[in-house]
Design a protein that fits this description.
By secondary structure, the protein is of the alpha/beta class. Helix content is 39%, strand content 17%. It has helices at residues 27-40, 54-70, 81-86, 101-108, 122-131, 154-163, 176-182, 193-196, 201-208; strands at 16-20, 43-48, 74-78, 91-94, 113-117, 135-138, 168-171, 188-191. Helix 1 runs parallel beside helix 2.
Amino acid sequence: MTDLPATPDDAPSAPQLYLIAPVGADPDAYGPRLAELLERYQVACIRIPGAGDEARLGRMADVVRDIAHAHDVAVVIEDHIQIAQSHGLDGVHLTSGAKQVRYARKELGEDAIVGAYCGASRHDGMSAAEAGADYVSFGPVGATGLGTGEEAPLDIFAWWSEMIEVPIVAEGGLDAVLIGKLAPITDFFAIGPEIWTKEDPMDALSHLWRQDK
């Protein structure tokens, strides 16, 4: 399986791009857009949202996997452990925090990527890390009308980067200003709705992420 890239202990840390695919996208239409993006940007991981029926998610998994693995990019899917297994994905992104981390690890094995979204809860993040998560995601970090709207405070990223070795992901409501503020204390930025809702996703990404290949 393709792992998230490791950074040597003596190397300067730099945040990496973690791409979230659009919810409910048509796999055949999304494939060429993804391929173009991966030609222009270095991406560490691609996440497939978990909404949709099994057949559509399976098709999306196959399309994204083939394109991503050709570029040595890892692919995870939200929550669906069996789809991750049957379609050769690199792991899962659990939207329920630490609750399923140990189960997912048991089912997928030690080499799989198991990530956990923990909202704005430092406690849930620590629990996920202790349970063996490969990364912990906090968010939203910016204003959004989704969910409860509770934002993850920026100081949680500063604290985490000093105290916890497990990589941290910032997501939700990102803009260029927030990315600039969080860059020194964040390992990954998960970008998805910020670009896919725009008329020109590639142009939108260029304004958020300037680390071109």
